[in-house]
Write a structure and sequence with these properties.
The structure holds two protein chains of two kinds. Chain A is of the alpha+beta class. Chain A contains five helices and seven strands; from the N terminus they run H-E-E-E-H-E-H-E-H-H-E-E. In chain A, strands 1-2-4-5 form a four-stranded mixed sheet, with helices on both faces. In chain A, strand 6 and strand 7 form a beta hairpin. In chain A, helix 2 crosses helix 3 and helix 3 runs parallel beside helix 4. The longest helix of chain A has 19 residues. Chain A is globular and about 50 Å long. Chain B is an alpha/beta fold. Chain B is built from seven helices and eight strands; from the N terminus they run E-H-E-H-E-H-H-H-E-E-E-H-E-E-H. A six-stranded mixed sheet of chain B has the order 6-5-4-7-3-8. In chain B, strands 1-2 form a two-stranded parallel sheet. Chain B starts with a strand and ends with a helix. Classes of the chains: A alpha+beta, B alpha/beta.
Chain lengths: 206, 227
């Protein structure tokens, strides 16, 4: 009964509207990797052509780095953080402790998105979910092709909310925040952030 | 596992962006805990696509500091949502360690308190257990003990609902306050948001860490997880 005071976290912490940064579009899909059929694949895409995009990341310092961590780190190193225009994320399977085949699967995920962008080294990849299992690449590959083939991308609030849902595992609510800021010269810019996490949480990223 | 991404339409040069994200992470995503476990997949990435017409921001830009601090506060907000959603969490806890000799010590002490199962279960049980907090400070993995002075340490609970008295002193200059106002302690610990304040009195640096309580629900969720 100690925890009996149930808080409706969803209505407390999930926004109902939002304005989002220029030049990004997002998409999500339910590929079937999640047993419950929920959204479990998302892609963020930079569509702005006026400036070569910059990317940065911090990664877990756990000794057993997952395949997506190792590959994303490699992409950033090889690209020096320039012209990275996409992030692809899957949930339901962490692709961790999966050895060489896990690396091959992560490369295939990245490769499929790079192909659509007609660019090399332009996609970061993240996975989360059960450790020690291989990605169900058939479902994820189909999901990526469907997202691009059916142009499931959007810039509306619902699209952003859905991609923050597709990365959830044991989360009870999607974590999406977005804010506008103004520089001293009057320029307005936007930060939008999404996160997932509810268990196995004490990161020390570098 | 913690995953997250932050995107912006500001033009930020990639080295500057990496430095900004590292600074922000050190004060936000690396300052949270639900269960003290570090995943194999934790990743936070950021893309700046420059869709907004303004000069590129580099480490020498006059706007660099302001944007860095805005990204840091933004990161804190996002990181705290993860803790609020901690498995089985019924409390959101801010651990404030101040007046430490250096930031690293303040952060290590705050993390030690935040990861103590005994502190987290005490908070779940609404028990003003200063002994467990002091114990967690005492075994923190500090490089040396210069930030700790047993005669200068103060530990308090701070009411987060602006009710008065805001501060419930549990330890004053190393001396436990045995005549604690139990009624007031119960009021403060009944709140969903809690704040533990530790004043080390050996410097001027401070750090914040966010954690949650440890409840039966956490065990239920993770006990029947099948991988």
């Amino acid at each position: 009964q100690q925890g009996s005071k149930v808080i409706d976290k969803y209505s407390l912490y999930v926004p109902k509207t939002g304005t989002f940064p220029k030049g990004f579009k997002v998409a999500s899909a339910a590929t079937g990797v999640k047993k419950n059929g929920n959204l479990d694949l998302g892609i963020i895409l930079n569509t702005n052509q006026s400036y070569p995009s910059s990317a940065a990341a911090v990664f877990t310092t756990n000794k057993f780095k997952a395949a997506p961590v190792l590959l994303s780190h490699k992409v950033l190193e090889e690209s020096s953080g320039k012209n990275v225009n996409a992030i692809v994320v899957n949930s339901g399977c962490a692709n961790s402790v999966t050895g060489d085949v896990g690396m091959k699967d992560a490369r295939e995920m990245v490769g499929l998105v790079n192909e659509q962008l007609h660019q090399e080294n332009s996609t970061l990849v993240m996975s989360t979910g059960v450790i020690g299992q291989r990605l169900q690449l058939n479902k994820i590959s189909q999901g990526i092709k469907d997202i691009f083939g059916q142009n499931k991308f959007g810039t509306d609030f619902e699209s952003w909310l859905n991609i923050s849902k597709c990365i959830c595992t044991t989360d009870t609510f999607p974590k999406l925040i977005t804010s506008k800021f103004t520089l001293p010269n009057g320029t307005e810019y936007t930060l939008t952030g999404m996160a997932k996490g509810a268990g196995m949480i004490c990161p020390n990223m570098a | 596992t913690l995953l997250g991404f932050i995107v912006t339409d500001l033009p930020i040069q990639s080295q500057a962006l990496q430095k900004m994200l590292r600074f922000s992470t050190e004060r936000s995503f690396n300052c949270i805990s639900v269960d003290g476990d570090m995943s194999t997949n934790d990743t936070i990435c950021m893309i700046a696509n420059g869709a907004v017409e303004t000069p590129e921001i580099t480490e020498t830009s006059s706007d660099y500091e302001q944007v860095k601090l805005q990204v840091t506060e933004f990161g804190k907000r996002l990181a705290q949502l993860v803790v609020r959603d901690g498995e089985g969490a019924t409390k959101f806890v801010t651990v404030n360690v101040k007046n430490a000799l250096n930031f690293a010590d303040a952060k290590i002490i705050a993390e030690s308190i935040s990861n103590s199962m005994l502190v987290k279960t005490a908070l779940y049980g609404k028990d003003a257990n200063w002994g467990r907090i002091l114990c967690a400070i005492g075994y923190a993995k500090l490089g040396d003990l210069s930030s700790l002075d047993v005669d200068k340490i103060n530990v308090s609970f701070i009411a987060t609902d602006n009710s008065e008295p805001r501060e419930l002193k549990l330890v004053v200059n190393g001396v436990p306050q045995l005549e604690i106002d139990e009624e007031r302690a119960s009021e403060i610990l009944a709140l969903t948001d809690l704040e533990v304040l530790v004043d080390l009195g050996t410097g001027s640096e401070e750090a914040q860490f966010w954690t949650c309580d440890l409840s039966h629900e956490y065990v239920t969720i993770n006990g029947d997880y099948r991988s």
